[in-house]
């Protein structure tokens, strides 16, 4: 597996690549603008070119872009829905422009709508975006913890949305271990991870899951609590991750950490733990 972390673009896109390289990442993930606002500063052609150059020089990849926090592609309110779809299209456009391999989107919250119509809304929006923006960046839906009215808390729902989008060549899923565990997927036992991978294969298909978010979970299995912690220090634990990371069916995937980053040592330690566990070793 290739491993990486989410890095900040606060000092510009090219610097983000250098940060990832300095941490010893194989791959990395970024936001493509301020994740907490609707307004994004313009990206100059020069900055984009410098980023691409840096990616090429360092050999890092795949490059992953994660959608910002505010857009909700399942929004009940029509104005918010429209605004969200346009914002996602704009960020997807940027992901294509910088040559990202993957663009990761949470399927949103349904609010007062029933789940079926919310899922249809997500699919309609993504279809619209894929029509507006052409490019080879894969559009990935991420499984959510299923808190409140979150859509996409299980693989069956994600598979249904992907079916409705009906662009198998341009879409897939990103699988987050913390969200899955919180949503009730047992990842601590061999039987659990086996069942999970079989479910991936019979729903969305293993070939359509190129990316993992590797996060340990603060909450119990089924708690619906979306709170990440360091690998091995949460409820999934060392054994859970060792089992998953040594599973041959996902050996070729990319795994990105979204664990707490208080100091750079946090990322360094989590990356080292992942690599050790993937190699089958003990910590
Ligand atoms: Zn995630
Ligand atoms: Zn999360």
Molecular structure report:
This protein is α/β, with parallel strands linked by helices. It has a single domain, classed as Alpha-Beta Barrel (TIM Barrel). 41% of the residues lie in helices and 14% in strands. Strands 1-2-3-4-5-6-7-10 form an 8-stranded parallel barrel, surrounded by 4 helices. A two-stranded antiparallel ribbon has the order 8-9. Helix 1 runs parallel beside helix 2 and helix 3 crosses helix 4. It is globular. It starts with a strand and ends in a 5-residue tail after the last helix. The protein binds zinc ion (2 copies).
Question: Which overall shape is indicated by the principal axes computed on the Cα atoms?
Answer: globular
CATH superfamily: Divalent-metal-dependent TIM barrel enzymes
Note the run of SSEs as H and E.
Answer: EHEHEHEHEHEHHEEEHEH
Strand order of the largest sheet: 1-2-3-4-5-6-7-10
- What is the end-to-end distance? 18 Å
Estimate the helix proportion, in percent: 40-55%
Ligands in the model, by name, code or SMILES, are: zinc ion
Mean pLDDT: 97
- Provide the CATH topology: TIM Barrel
Give the amount of beta strand, in percent: 5-15%
| CATH hierarchy class name | Alpha Beta
Estimated radius of gyration: 18 Å
**Whole-number count of domains:** 1
Low-confidence stretches: none
Largest sheet: 8 strands, parallel, barrel
